[in-house]
Amino acid sequence: MREGQILFTYLHLAAAQELGAELVKRKVSGVAYETIETDDRRLPLLTPMSAVAGRMSVQAGASFLEKERGGKGILLGGVPGVRRGRVCIIGGGVVGANAARMAIGLGARVTVLDINQDVLTYLDDIYEGRIHTLYSDPFTVEAAVAKADLVIGAVLVAGARAPRLVTEAMIRNMEPGSVIVDVAVDQGGCVETCRPTTHEDPTYLVHGVIHYCVANMPGAVPRTSTFALANATMPYVKALAQKGLEKAAADDPVMARGVNTYRGGVTHPAVAEALGQPYTPLSV
Length: 284
Ligand SMILES: NC(=O)c1ccc[n+]([C@@H]2O[C@H](COP(=O)([O-])OP(=O)(O)OC[C@H]3O[C@@H](n4cnc5c(N)ncnc54)[C@H](O)[C@@H]3O)[C@@H](O)[C@H]2O)c1
What we know:
By secondary structure, the protein is an alpha/beta fold. It has helices spanning 17-25, 47-64, 94-105, 117-127, 138-147, 168-172, 222-251, 253-256, 269-275; strands spanning 6-9, 29-32, 86-90, 109-114, 132-135, 150-153, 179-182, 203-206, 209-212, 259-262, 265-266.
């Protein structure tokens, strides 16, 4: 790549120092999907992947609960006269809300834990009694996890490693054949026993509990994921193509926040800090 080119994609430069250094050296304009941020702090180019992963988490969990796949042999929806599967979702953001939607659709008994009262209120409102919401604290997490057939980890603390909310002791308390899908694995996981896996070999056992910790879940459904992502990125691609980077960034602060490297400087404060390089505010 050479000076003046624009690279617009997921960059994750904080975790890819070599790439960051090379973009700076070659004076490439690196515009990162993950730092395109709205004024109300949403990340519109991460949302579609979280929606895919959230919806997939229930599908994956339901599948691994089947006996043939090592699970305890529970159907999430139950049948008349037999209890429903219990799904515990920790974190009710984009991943958690999408997981809840799928789990409720399957007829499971769904509990969502979060520390944000607005998130709990919203879910309580839209599902009108078909969902249990609980404020997340260590005691509540422990009780909810112990009873669950399927636990979904969907926590995010912006800019930080995921907090380890489910400890190994809690896992030991779960029934054998239960399933944990830790979607937050890409931020380190919110389950103490989580380690990243791939679609080729997605699960492993700890204390008889199946762990599914695939770091790139949307990769399993690339058609859906690609269309979803392209829908979200297209307005920015058009702005870049029609106006060029300078005018697109000058016209739209959301786009400007996406610019990580420009003319040999690092133009995003958090990225500069992570790369150990000086921060050069973007001037276009
Ligand atoms: N594995 C994958 O393929 C994949 C794909 C997409 C997203 N993710 C990851 O999934 C995670 C969730 O993403 P998101 O888009 O839903 O984030 P989000 O910000 O929309 O939601 C995170 C939620 O976690 C809640 N939370 C924070 N601390 C908590 C605590 N102590 N207890 C309970 N809840 C708490 C927040 O209040 C928020 O509602 C992120 O780590 C993201 O990187 C993984």
